[in-house]
Structures are given as C-alpha cells and as structure tokens.
Amino acid sequence: MSAQTKADDGFSAEERAAIKERAAELKAQGRSGKAAEKAAAEAETMFQKIAGMPEPDRGMAERLHEIVTEVAPDLAPKLFYGQPAWTRGGKPVVFFRSGQQDKERYSTLGFSSQAALDDESGLWPTAYALTRIDDASAATIAELVKHAAG
C-alpha cells in the first residue's frame, strides 16, 4: 500500500480529528469505569472491616463515616494499614484506628500530613482519643474533618 493510499482514506482532516477525539473519549471512559470499580471495591472492603469490628468501635467507625461523608463528600473511603480511612487521590486525610483491635484503652481519630490542619503557631494536634461519639464530639469531629479536607 502506498503512502498516498494511506493518506487518502476518504476522511477529511476534520473527520480524522473527530475520530481521534472520540477514540480518546472512549479510552478515558474505560479508565474512569475501572477507577470507579476500584473505588467501589475499596469502599466495600472498608465497610466489611467496620462491620467486623467489636462494639463500641463499630458504632464509632460507622458514625465517623457518616460525619466524613456529610462534611467532606470528596474524600473516598478506603482501608489504610487495615483500618478505615478517608482519602484524596489515594492518600489518607482522616483515619480511624480501633482501640480494641490494637489492644488499647481508646480508639483514635487521626489526620495525616495531607490534612489541611496547619496552624501558624507551628503546633497542632493530629490525633484524638475516642471512647464514644456523642452529639458534642460529633460536632467537634465535623469541624475538624471539614477543616482537614480544606
């Protein structure tokens, strides 16, 4: 086949550009579908982990998920070192550690270096002990997560 025959495929330059654009769209859709499937699988794995936790950790983790989802819906649920976390770009921002599974006297609500908690004083907390989540602590957690998520 000659170079002339390849170039003379019956499509105009605009049509060839449209075909290339559509091919790129289809490729991107395929990738986003895989990403959505992966995100759903990661969330399901986290929910299964929470469901297997003993009380009161299970209840706290479920309540924490409700709070994070409400105030920072852009954070995605995922396991981080085998514990529930909420991530941005695959990196944890907020996490929960089960005190009972760690054989500690309290569970932990923590924030990674990805959290936007920096204080100009140069000192800020990155973890909190949790023994229960009541209305007052839920409000505090909501403010912390909202701040951390940026």
Largest sheet at a glance? Answer: 5 strands, antiparallel
Number of helices: 4
Mean pLDDT rating: 88
Q: Give the C-alpha Rg.
A: 23 Å
**Strand order, largest beta sheet:** 1-2-3-4-5
Beta content? 15-25%
Give the topology string: H per helix, E per strand: HHHEEEEEH
Q: How helical, in percent, are the residues?
A: 40-55%
* Helix/strand/pairing category: alpha+beta
* Total beta strands: 5
In the predicted model, the low-confidence regions spanning at least 5 consecutive residues are 1-5
Shape: elongated
Distance between the terminal alpha carbons, to the nearest Å?
Answer: 58 Å
Features:
150 residues; alpha+beta; five-stranded antiparallel beta sheet; 4 helices
Question: In short, what is this structure?
Answer:
The chain is α+β, with helices and mostly antiparallel strands and 150 residues long. It has 4 helices and 5 strands. Helix content is 49%, strand content 18%.
Characterization of this structure:
The protein has 150 residues and is α+β, with helices and mostly antiparallel strands. 49% of the residues lie in helices and 18% in strands. The chain is built from four helices and five strands; from the N terminus they run αααβββββα. It has a five-stranded antiparallel β-sheet with strand order 1-2-3-4-5. A hairpin with a 2-residue loop joins β1 (76-80) and β2 (83-88).
